[in-house]
Amino acid sequence: MHIIVVSSRLAKAKSLSITPLHLFTGGAAMALLVLALAWALLYVSVRHAERLGIPEVDALLASVHDRKSRQTASFLRGNLDAMAVKLGQMQAQLIRLDALGERLSSLAGLKPGEFRFNEPPGRGGAASASTEAYSLSMVDLGSQVDALSRQMESRSDQLGLLETALFDARVKSKLLPTVTPIDAAWNASSFGWRIDPFTGQRAMHEGIDIVADPGTPIFSAAGGVVVYAQFHPQFGQMVEIDHGNDFVTRYAHASRLLVKNGDVVKRGRKIAEVGSSGRSTGPHLHFEVRYKGAAQNPARFLRASSR
After folding, report:
1. DSSP codes of every residue in 3-31
2. CA-based diameter of the chain, in Å?
C-alpha cells in the first residue's frame, strides 16, 4: 500500500509505503491499548465500587464474596466432619486403653486407686517467658490429631502384648508349688544330708518332713495333673502331681488318698490325709519338689498363702 503526502510546506510530494507487517503491528498495538484501558477501567471500578455506587458492580462483588464464603464454609465443614470422625475413633481407643489399663493393674497386683484411668491426669506449669505461644491452624490441628491417633494405636498394641505376658506369668506362677501343703509348723527333717533314721548312715533327704496328726488334710501346692496316686514300697500311700514346665511334687506316707491318676487338681485342693504308711517312723508328710527330675529344696518355693 502506498500513501502520497502532499503539503505546501513540502517542496515535493512524499510517498509512504505501508507493508502488512506495519498493519499487523499497528493493530496489535491498538488491541493492547484497548485491553489496558479496559483493565484500568475494571480495576478502578472494582477498587472504588462502593464510592462509585454502580449497582451492577456491587452485585458482581457480592456474588463473588458469597461464592468464596460458601467454599470456605464447605471446606471447614468437611475438615470438621473428618476431625469429628477421628475424634470418635480416638475416644473408642481411649475407652479400650482404660479397660486395658484396669486389667493390667489387676494382673500386676497394683492398688485400684493407684492409677485413675477414668480421670484426666493433673497437669500445670508456668507460662513460658522465652517462647511466645501461638494458636494452631486447622492444618496443624489435623496433623496433631493424626499423630496422637497413631501413638494411641501403637500404645494399645504394646499394652496388649504386655497384658499377654503378664497373664502368662501369672498362670505360670499359679503352677509353681508355692502353697504350704499342710497346716503344721513343725519341720521334723529338712532338705539335704542327714542321718537316716533306719540305717544310721549319712544319706541325702530329697524333701522335707512335716509332722502332723493322722488324718490332717494334705493340699496340692499348685494346680496340675495327678500322675501317680497309689501305694509305693518306700513312700507308702503317695500322690505325685505334674504342674507343667517340668515341675513335679510328691506327697508321701499318707493314710488315705482322695485323688486318682489323671485327675486335674486346682491349687490348694485336698488330695490326701496324713498317715505313716511306707518307710516311716510316725505320722508326717514327706513333701518333695522336683524340676526336670532333680530334687529341689521345697523351702525355696513354699510360702504362706490362703487357699
Report:
1. EEE--TTSSS-EEEE--HHHHHHHHHHHH
2. 163
Q: What is the DSSP letter of 294?
A: E
As averages over each run of 10 residues, the pLDDT of the chain (307 residues) reads 62 67 78 83 64 62 73 72 72 74 70 63 72 74 78 75 70 78 83 90 93 95 94 96 92 96 94 96 94 90 57
Contact 214, 236 (CB under 8 A): no
For domain 187-300, give the CATH number. 2.70.70.10
Q: Report whether 288 contacts 199 (CB < 8 A).
A: no
> 261-265 contacts: CB < 8 A, separation 24 or more?
261/226, 261/227, 261/228, 261/229, 261/230, 262/225, 262/226, 263/225, 263/226, 263/229, 264/223, 264/224, 264/225, 264/226, 265/220, 265/223, 265/224, 265/225, 265/226, 265/241
* DSSP state for residue 278 in the 8-state scheme: S
Q: DSSP letter at 303?
A: B
Give the type of residue at 215: G
* Residue the block writes with cell 462509585: 52
